[in-house]
């Protein structure tokens, strides 16, 4: 066996001192030392390891940060029934739902033609184009609510939403829009035709409905003189609808909608559509107002109930938070 030559010995000494040198740095956690160690032990290839480790570290940290700040407290709701009551500011909302559905490739319940799903008849499946295998997502075209049929055709986790308007102005608007005066052979101009209609009521009462909002929400004509029936209808609607918005409190309504659906402010920014000139709205005498309220007492009860629950929801949401959200909304519109 050959004894190690001087050269080999020198080499071994080199390796030894190198390991000693390396050992001195082990345990140190300084960045520089670690990098130095790596490049010495693993050669130049080690350089590519370091950024990888760094990347993973920052990636993990950024994931941690994200989940911390964007708490996944809610998932946007895509299955929606918006029962658009007529003459109650629903066109603006319909526009919001249409835009959202379009952007998110959702499936609408659509009429075979036009915009109306059989109104004024209670909704039937045959009024709509058949759904694709994935089913429907959004129901937002004009219809008379038919609970059993609609519940059956929409997904289980559907959110139900509608909007109401203060009954006096709603009736006045409906009266003009449906030309009820004309239907009843009243020739005076709009400002007086309501007066005339309520002066000689009995004849024309048979030709024109009352409580348009209740009818729109699926109540039947039979029940309007029965306070208990009206009450029960309201209770059913309370159970069914997750949110009943109020046209007169439109901004608060939009914020509650956004909160319920887990949408963004951009999702609910809107343009006012279909709004009448203010001067065409009639000035009503107190006597006439009372007659209209009496005539539509189902709608009055409906509105009172849901305006009350609406403000309860605003309180639960937080009044201060509501003010801030409305400010944010106003900046966008
Ligand atoms: C970085 O993370 C990925 C998984 O996210 C893993 O497969 C890979 O081995 C990690 N690399 C290092 C150098 O730790
Ligand atoms: C909707 O569909 C279009 C075309 O198929 C696609 O490019 C787009 O990414 C989809 N958008 C969403 C939000 O799924
Ligand atoms: C709804 O109720 C609130 C609180 O009671 C009231 O201030 C508001 O005037 C009501 N809205 C309408 C349109 O009557």
TrEMBL record:
Residues 1-30 form the signal peptide. It is a single-pass type II membrane protein. The keyword Cytoplasm does not apply. Keywords: Glycoprotein, Golgi apparatus, Membrane, Signal, Signal-anchor, Transferase, Transmembrane, Transmembrane helix. InterPro entries: Gal-3-0_sulfotransfrase, P-loop_NTPase. Pfam families: Gal-3-0_sulfotr. It is found in: Golgi apparatus membrane. It comes from the Eukaryota. Belongs to the galactose-3-O-sulfotransferase family. This is Galactosylceramide sulfotransferase-like.
């Amino acid at each position: 066996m050959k004894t190690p030559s001087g050269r080999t010995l020198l080499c071994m000494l080199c390796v030894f001192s190198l390991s000693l040198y390396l050992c001195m740095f082990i345990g140190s956690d300084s960045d520089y030392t670690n990098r130095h160690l790596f490049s010495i032990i693993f050669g130049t290839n080690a350089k590519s390891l370091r950024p990888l480790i760094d990347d993973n570290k920052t990636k993990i940290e950024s994931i941690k940060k994200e989940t911390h700040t964007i708490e996944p407290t809610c998932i946007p709701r895509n299955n929606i029934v918006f029962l658009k009551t007529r003459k109650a500011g629903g066109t603006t909302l319909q526009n919001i739902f249409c835009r959202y559905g379009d952007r998110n490739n959702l499936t609408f319940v659509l009429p075979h033609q036009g915009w109306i799903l059989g109104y004024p008849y209670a909704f039937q499946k045959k009024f709509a184009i058949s759904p694709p295998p994935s089913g429907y997502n959004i129901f937002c075209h004009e219809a008379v609510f038919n609970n059993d049929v609609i519940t059956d055709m929409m997904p289980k986790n559907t959110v139900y939403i509608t909007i109401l308007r203060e009954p006096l102005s709603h009736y006045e608007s409906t009266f003009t829009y449906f030309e009820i005066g004309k239907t009843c052979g009243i020739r005076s101009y709009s400002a007086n035709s309501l007066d005339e209609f309520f002066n000689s009521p009995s004849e024309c009462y048979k030709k024109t409905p009352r409580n348009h909002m209740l009818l729109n929400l699926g109540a039947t004509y039979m029940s309007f003189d029965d306070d208990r029936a009206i009450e029960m209808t309201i209770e059913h609607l309370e159970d069914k609808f997750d949110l009943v918005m109020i046209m007169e409190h439109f901004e608060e309504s939009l914020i509650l909608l956004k909160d319920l659906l887990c949408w963004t402010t951009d999702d609910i920014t809107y343009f006012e559509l279909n709004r009448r000139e203010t001067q065409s709205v009639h000035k009503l005498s107190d006597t006439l107002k009372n007659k209209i309220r009496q005539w539509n007492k189902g709608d009055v009860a409906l509105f009172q109930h849901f305006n009350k629950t609406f403000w309860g929801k605003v309180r639960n949401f937080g009044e201060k938070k509501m003010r801030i959200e409305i400010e944010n909304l106003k900046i966008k519109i």
